[in-house]
Design brief:
two-stranded antiparallel ribbon, alpha+beta, Aminopeptidase, seven-stranded mixed β-sheet, disordered C terminus, 14 helices
């Protein structure tokens, strides 16, 4: 590891931390390429670049980028499910570069800069990208550094990387980089509980909450809904009730919130995936329920019972409830609803009234 030579000049008492302007990025990248061991940063998604000035002179540069797609040490520390991980990486930022320029190394300057960044980073990230932050991460090359400045700023060392390099479309097949220390800095006292929940609190939710299901989860959903006896009339019945309900449940967990959306989601499934739902076979191909069938089943079970069934599945397989959700009726108002006192609710709300028979288990 390199031994730093500290500046003998007076310690800079006043520092100005600000975002780098667009017309300054060429100079920013040139300094990184010249003085940082890993060179200038490649542009990947959302990024913020800060300049630290003293009396108008640049003395340090620091960048924050999107979180690593995968990091075993980080993911084990958080403890989140793989089904929710991908959608929640937006709540983590990576301190991808930190450079104190030559001639400006002072004792405790680095921790002072890190502290100043953390005080404004959440607000800046939210203002630029409309997303809050819950956690910071960084990777320290143990061949050159021990991560002393991060330890001094109370970052948590949670483990090491395995040396795989991020490439287009994912990661390299074999280790190609030196092992790095993984440091994390919580931005909220209850960060792990928030990130591990199947549904995020409203303050951290971005769009519709969804879970990335795997093929084996489809089969588990079908097995879960097989407990429900079919409440429909035998006339015109083409699909198993377990198939229809498990398709609806999988679509809702995947972030779909409307009849038409559920029907479209089902039609986009491959034949291999439809096999897990035991969809009926017509001329050698598995077919999905019509939008009318999906509407009738949701109305027959009613949305509140559907919530209970989906939450029971999540508790059984993930150990956590999925929580609340609303389904849009796509402007569709069945004749039975039109003739009832629920007409105002059906027109003005996304809630589906429970007008039909209760399911019989």
């Amino acid at each position: 590891m390199n031994e730093l030579i500290y500046n003998s000049k007076p310690y800079p008492s006043e520092l100005n931390l600000r975002l780098a302007q667009h017309n300054e990025m060429a100079q920013y990248d040139n300094l990184m390429a010249k003085h940082h061991k890993r060179g200038a940063l490649r542009r990947i998604g959302h990024e913020l670049h800060y300049v630290v000035e003293h009396q108008g002179q640049w003395i340090a540069l620091i960048s924050f980028s999107p979180a690593a797609l995968k990091c075993t040490a980080r993911d084990q520390w958080i403890g989140w499910l793989p089904q929710v991980q991908t959608d929640r990486l937006r709540l983590i930022a990576n301190n991808s570069r930190f450079l104190i320029l030559p001639g400006h190394h002072y004792p405790n300057l680095a921790t002072r800069i890190l502290s100043a960044c953390q005080k404004r980073l959440s607000a800046d990230w939210l203002a630029h990208f409309s997303k809050p932050l819950l956690l910071l991460e960084t990777f320290v090359d143990s061949e050159f550094h021990a991560g002393t400045i991060y330890r001094a700023d109370n970052w948590i060392m949670v483990g090491q990387t395995r040396g795989y390099k991020r490439v287009y479309g994912g990661y390299s097949d074999t280790p190609s980089e030196s092992v790095k220390l993984v440091f994390l800095k919580p931005m909220h006292w209850n960060v792990r509980r928030i990130l591990c929940a199947l549904q995020l609190p409203d303050a951290y939710r971005y769009g519709v909450e969804k879970i990335k299901l795997k093929s084996r989860d489809y089969g588990s959903l079908y097995a879960h809904f097989r407990r429900i006896k079919d409440f429909r009339s035998t006339q015109g019945r083409r699909h198993q009730i377990a198939s229809v309900l498990s398709l609806i449940g999988a679509a809702i967990l995947s972030g779909v919130r409307s009849y038409k959306g559920i029907w479209t989601w089902c039609n986009d499934l491959s034949q291999d995936n439809l096999r897990y739902f035991r969809c009926r076979i017509v001329k050698g191909q598995r077919v999905t329920p019509s939008i009318t069938c999906i509407r009738n089943v949701i109305m027959g079970v009613n949305q509140y019972r559907l919530k209970r069934l989906i939450n029971a599945f999540c508790m059984e397989h993930f150990g956590l409830p999925f929580g609340e959700f609303l389904l849009s009726n796509d402007g569709y108002i069945p004749a039975k609803v039109q003739q009832s006192s629920y007409i105002g609710l059906a027109q003005d709300s996304t809630l589906i009234p429970s007008l039909s028979r209760e399911y019989r288990s």
